[in-house]
Design a protein that fits this description.
KAP P-loop domain protein; 13 strands
């Protein structure tokens, strides 16, 4: 029975060899590593005749931090287990995926065993040559042509037995005895198959010996953990070849494999090879004993890892003399600040993926970095435009040019189309600090006295996402409708018998804030178009 291992990633880690530095775990992943360690160790541990193999597909979507998770997990386990980590994407220039894995195993296990490069135990098995280029039919064809004096494809292409021997010639132009040629090809294929079988058997024995050499040191124990990362990012042909070739060594007793992928993306990769109608999910299932999916982190945690969030904080705005209203942050009931709660609510409403969330936030940050001193802007409305452009370019174009009451070709009004997109916002609310008392203290307009009876106290209030969009868009885009919007709010708030309406107070305050802004509809459009050209490559977000 393998001893229990406790995993704590609350602090940064530098590996003993100084090759890698890991920041503290911000996505609460350590508990998953501990759980999986115990699970996999129970599969591969035991006495020599009780050890088993196991292959786990670790699934996590793009941006969820699976590479950090796998690399730190591998570093953690080296204290107690033989460990090999293979970055498939960094080595997909290789023509032979199996050799990529084997060479990594030899090098890393040799180092962990404290052996030199000349140690005979860690030399590449000679019989392994029988596996080289096993997945390349063109090589086999070349071998047949070289040693048999005939291109086997020509035999296959013959449609009529009577033609064989009459139209197929050897390299010297002589007629070929097709019976003899076919016999030689079959003989060669059988020998080739036997050589590959012998090579696989020899390889498995070698891996077991390498693992034993490491397990005998520093009280390390079985199983050996082989981590294969970034398979979904490899070129399609290489990813498929990697799976097809390493399956030969999956069944080594006392060895567990963890293959990390964005499984959905990998399925697309496989379909690129075999066609859209191919059942990629079933195909992948035959390689793995089970699949373990890392829970997607909250947007707040995701952004704290991938983006410089201090540049969207109120303190940063204050340092830059930038005024942003309404706020992106939300104050909780316990007076704790929930960073960017309004922003992530907007992301949730539009059902953005992790990739889209990171991209949109980076674009917002790029806008803030380019704002001039004393700017006054509505970043939450800008986030709405960025989200809409990401999800529905056609609707985004309409919103920029039309009022929300604009009638579309299908006889629907534009605002109904928008409401359908944000319909999931029913449970989602934005939170704003409203301070009507400030309006009276500075006397913004004579009409305020008429609504004093329905005055709400200063504090934090909630507003539906669509209501926020409707008000902000009207104030920024529809100059002709601003007075109508304000007058409707005043008329409603002037009714002493009516319960105070948060939306109407938001209209009053938002109109005054919008008058301070130096960004009109055209300016917001320019900001969106400039920022949307910024795209962070996938390779930068592990």
């Amino acid at each position: 029975m393998a001893s229990q291992i406790m995993i704590d990633w609350s602090s940064p880690l530098q590996t003993e060899d100084g090759r890698e530095n890991f920041p503290a775990d911000q996505l609460d992943r350590a508990k998953y590593a501990e759980f999986l360690t115990h699970f996999l160790a129970s599969k591969g541990a035991g006495s020599s005749d009780e050890r088993h193999n196991y292959v786990l597909n670790l699934n996590a979507e793009w941006g969820a931090g699976k590479s950090y998770f796998l690399r730190r997990w591998a570093a953690e386990l080296k204290e107690k287990y033989p460990v090999v980590y293979v970055d498939a994407w960094k080595q997909d220039y290789s023509d032979d995926p199996l050799m990529t894995v084997i060479s990594s195993m030899i090098k890393q296990l040799r180092e962990q065993a404290g052996k030199s490069e000349e140690d005979p135990l860690f030399k590449t098995p000679r019989k392994l040559i029988g596996l080289l280029k096993a997945a390349a039919p063109s090589i086999a064809r070349g071998v047949a042509t070289k040693y048999l004096g005939i291109d086997p494809v020509k035999i296959i292409q013959q449609a009529d037995d009577d033609d064989i021997g009459e139209t197929v010639k050897d390299r010297n132009g002589q007629d070929i005895d097709m019976g003899l040629a076919a016999s030689k090809i079959v003989e060669h294929l059988i020998k080739d198959h036997d050589a590959k079988s012998d090579a696989i058997a020899s390889l498995k024995l070698s891996v077991e010996e390498w693992v034993r050499a490491v397990a005998g040191l520093r009280e390390k124990q079985h199983p050996a953990f082989i981590f294969i990362d970034e398979l979904d990012r490899c070129r399609p042909s290489y990813a498929v070849e990697m799976l097809e070739t390493i399956k030969h060594i999956f069944d080594i007793p006392g060895v567990v494999f963890v293959v990390a992928t964005d499984t959905e993306q990998l399925q697309h990769t496989i379909k690129a090879i075999y066609g859209e109608g191919f059942d990629a999910r079933t195909y992948l299932g035959r390689f793995f004993n089970s699949r373990y999916t890392l829970k997607a982190p909250s947007f707040e945690k995701l952004l704290s890892v991938h983006c410089d969030m201090k540049k969207l904080s109120e303190s940063y705005f204050n340092d830059r003399n930038i005024e942003n209203w309404p706020e992106l942050d939300v104050q909780s009931e316990g007076s704790d600040l929930i960073p960017l709660k309004n922003l992530t609510t907007m992301y949730n409403v539009f059902s953005l993926s992790a990739r889209q969330v990171i991209q949109t936030t980076e674009r917002l940050i790029s806008v803030v970095e380019n704002l001039k001193t004393n700017s006054h802007i509505n970043l939450l409305y800008l986030a709405f435009l960025l989200c809409l452009r990401e999800k529905n370019q056609m609707l985004y174009d309409l919103v920029l040019t039309k009022d929300l009451i604009h009638q579309l070709d299908n006889k629907k009004q534009l605002h109904y189309e928008l409401m359908e997109i944000v319909s999931a916002s029913d449970p989602e609310k934005l939170s704003f600090n409203l301070k009507p008392s400030n309006l009276f203290s500075v006397g913004h307009a004579n009409y305020l006295n008429s609504i004093a009876d329905n005055l709400i106290s200063d504090g934090q209030y909630e507003l539906g996402v669509y209501q926020f969009i409707e008000v902000s868009h009207t104030l920024i885009k529809s100059v002709s409708r601003i007075s109508n919007l304000r007058n409707e709010a005043i008329r409603s708030l002037s009714n002493r018998n009516q319960t105070p309406d948060i939306k109407n107070w938001f209209v009053i305050i938002a109109e005054i804030e919008n008058k301070k802004s130096n960004y009109n509809n055209s300016a917001y459009k320019d900001l969106v178009e400039l920022a949307s050209a910024l795209d962070v490559p996938e390779s930068k977000i592990a």
